[in-house]
Design brief:
The chain is of the alpha+beta class. It folds into 2 domains: 42 residues, no CATH class; 112 residues, 434 Repressor (Amino-terminal Domain). The protein is built from 6 helices and 7 strands. The strands form 3 sheets. It has a 3-stranded antiparallel β-sheet, with no helix packed on it. Strands 2-3 form a two-stranded antiparallel ribbon. The longest helix is centred in the C-terminal third of the chain and has 22 residues. The radius of gyration is 24 Å and the shape is elongated. The structure holds zinc ion.
C-alpha cells in the first residue's frame, strides 16, 4: 500500500490525508454506491487548496459493480443499463442492434428511466439480460482489461452456466422441421417422439 506523504497535485507536505471507512462513490453513473473498508484515499491540501479522492484498484471496482448488476435479480434500472453499456464500451446504437431493435432511441428512453426499472415484468427483460451477460463476458471477462479476481470469475461463470445456457436454448431459433413423428412404444404404451437421425 503506497504512502501519501505529499499533495498529489502540488507535492506540498501540508496535506491532510484521510482513509474514510465509508465513502459514497460519485460520478460512476449509479446512485447509492457506498465503498467500505480502506479502498479510498482523500487528500485536502493547505498549500494549493485542491482536494483529491483516489480509489485503489478502481478498474476492478468498476468491473465488480458490473458483475453485481449481472448477478442481481430482475428489475434492471435505467442507470444500471447505462452503466453496463458504457462498461462494455457500446454505443446506444450498438446495443440496440445487439438486442434486435432498430432504434437507438429505444435504449435512450430506457436509460432515461434512471433509478426506475426499465420493464414492468421480469420476463420482458430476459432478452436484454441475456445480451448484457454475453457482452459482459466478451468485453470484460475475456478482455485483456479484465481486473476481476478469481472469486469474481467463479461467480460469473456459475451464474452464466445456470442462467444463460437455459435461456439460450429458449431463445435460439430452431431449425425448420418437417412433419413431427410420434410412435407408441409397445411395451409401455407411451407415446414418444421419433428422433430423426442426423443427416
Ligand atoms: Zn497541493
Amino acid at each position: 500500500m503506497e504512502k501519501w506523504t505529499g499533495c498529489p497535485i502540488c507535492g506540498s507536505p501540508k496535506v491532510r490525508v484521510q482513509h474514510p471507512t465509508r465513502h459514497a462513490l460519485d460520478h460512476c453513473g449509479l446512485t447509492g454506491v457506498i465503498l467500505e473498508g480502506n479502498g479510498v484515499v482523500l487528500t485536502d491540501c493547505d498549500a494549493c487548496g485542491e482536494q483529491t479522492s483516489t480509489i485503489r484498484n478502481e478498474a476492478q471496482l468498476l468491473q465488480c459493480l458490473g458483475l453485481m448488476i449481472i448477478l442481481s435479480g430482475p428489475g434492471l434500472t435505467g442507470e444500471e443499463l447505462g452503466y453496463m453499456r458504457s462498461l462494455c464500451e457500446m454505443s446506444q446504437e450498438d446495443l440496440a442492434t445487439a438486442i434486435g431493435r432498430s432504434r437507438r432511441e429505444t435504449i435512450a428512453d430506457w436509460e432515461a428511466r434512471g433509478t426506475q426499472p426499465v420493464f414492468r415484468a421480469p420476463f420482458d427483460e430476459l432478452n436484454l439480460r441475456v445480451v448484457l451477460m454475453s457482452l459482459f463476458q466478451k468485453k470484460v471477462v475475456e478482455s485483456k482489461w479484465c481486473c476481476l479476481a478469481p472469486r469474481h470469475l467463479d461467480q460469473f461463470h456459475a451464474a452464466r452456466r445456470d442462467f444463460i445456457s437455459r435461456v439460450d436454448q429458449m431463445l435460439t431459433p430452431r431449425e425448420p422441421h418437417g412433419p413431427r413423428s410420434l410412435k407408441r412404444i409397445k411395451s409401455s404404451g407411451e407415446w414418444a417422439a421419433v428422433r430423426k437421425r442426423a443427416a
